């Protein structure tokens, strides 16, 4: 139980709502546990194929049923900076497994695309769908039934949620997530943002913009702003799927390698062959999911997780709703200021006390369920620590500091930056949507202005460059939902809208698409559902209609007579340009079958 009765009440209602689906899920997990996951269930031919490439000693080990085999699912590629360090991890994990008396094999690889590369490009239309594809690819890797546990090597936006969905689908196996860490700090994020706005205004050229971007994204590791990738790492730790303190240690350091070795050995220690069997499907429960949402609010995390957490929870038979997320936001204070919700980056957050301090403060405030199971096995209090490298090269942990090393970056529970988490659900005659207000100034939480309708983000860019948007308005960018074009992020809209806002105009965005996990200072009602391509109300908005976005009251309304608005036909557009090129033709089935945003925008459920 938590000390806060409001969080306890929300958790209980999730439990009650989820009972039928959760019970069915746990029955399946326990049935698979009873069947066994060991090599003994394979025929001799099956097994010979499974260890044909292994060393003779490993073949001898795997021929029996007493040595655990660890499956490695890797998202390594050397184009994506966050995942490039994973190139060396399988060798480290195999060596650690041998030291622990086990075997490790790469079970499979999964795709890992970079939203930073595809922002504003056709490839971004594959991004959200890649999450479910990653889950499917993981299932292929683990389908050989050769493994007693699995470790998951992933960092970025859709990769970790996809891996988490797969891990919970294979809930009979223990699962440990192993991060690679953030790149070292480069050009400050606010300076990067400034150069982007100057470029949008035509005041600097492409050469200056590329120089700034290259100084920001300059080496191996996760981008250092607090977008979806780093929100993923926070979630994996606060949900107990990382080793304590593992999230934000830089790549290619002795401590990073020590944490990787420790994670591999721990995964082997919690198999059914030992005394601490921890199948992930039983370990992750409603309390773990609520802890994840609390962490998201306390850190001002990515809006993308209003979909990812819903989909991850459903993989475990847990019914999480946007209303749950919004209600928790009203309770949980904001304790971190990391760009775009501040000037610091994740390295500054880690140096100020990081996850250990954050979890300690949230536990102190009674805002987390401490009595959860974790891969570490000791409840969440064991995560109120900082990792250090011991003299013998192993991981040593010290208690998290009593005070933040930088109160401007990481606050104590008694002195939060704001009393709420800043992720809100908006409802009204346009349906449901989500808004992130933790980085939006209070005077901009309510915007009332006429609509200007766009059917793709380039139309808005062109109107801005032509000087047609120097006024108060609400940009309605529609036909950007999962079924229309895969729900791409519309992050390229941030600089022009930011420029207009800085000029003193009241501007906002309303869209059935997504914004970046780094959604910032412009009020944006995103993930509007039902989406336009499903005939949602957003498809009936016309230029000049007055829109009221009210993040205080939690409403999103078109201020048109109800009878007139309901009588309007929904606009349709030709979406054939979204169907071909850069692989989009291969995802036609995904576009046809994707669920609504408030149910995770998934093709799997």
Automatic annotation (TrEMBL):
Coiled coil: none annotated. Its EC number is 4.2.1.12. One of its GO terms (biological process) is Entner-Doudoroff pathway through 6-phosphogluconate. It comes from the Bacteria. It catalyses: 6-phospho-D-gluconate = 2-dehydro-3-deoxy-6-phospho-D-gluconate + H2O. InterPro entries: 6-phosphgluc_deHydtase, Dihydro-acid_dehy_C, DiOHA_6PGluconate_deHydtase_CS, ILV_EDD_C, ILV_EDD_N, IlvD/EDD_N. Pfam families: ILV_EDD_C (PF24877), ILVD_EDD_N (PF00920). Its cofactor is [4Fe-4S] cluster. Residues 408-601 form the Dihydroxy-acid/6-phosphogluconate dehydratase C-terminal domain. Residues 68-381 form the Dihydroxy-acid/6-phosphogluconate dehydratase N-terminal domain. Binds 1 [4Fe-4S] cluster. It is an enzyme of class 4 (lyase). Pathway: Carbohydrate metabolism; Entner-Doudoroff pathway. One of its GO terms (cellular component) is cytosol. Keywords: 4Fe-4S, Carbohydrate metabolism, Gluconate utilization, Iron, Iron-sulfur, Lyase, Metal-binding. GO terms for molecular function: 4 iron, 4 sulfur cluster binding; metal ion binding; phosphogluconate dehydratase activity. The keyword Nucleus does not apply. [4Fe-4S] cluster binds at residues 156, 223. Belongs to the IlvD/Edd family. Catalyzes the dehydration of 6-phospho-D-gluconate to 2-dehydro-3-deoxy-6-phospho-D-gluconate. This is Phosphogluconate dehydratase. The lineage of its organism: Bacteria, Pseudomonadati, Pseudomonadota, Alphaproteobacteria, Hyphomicrobiales.
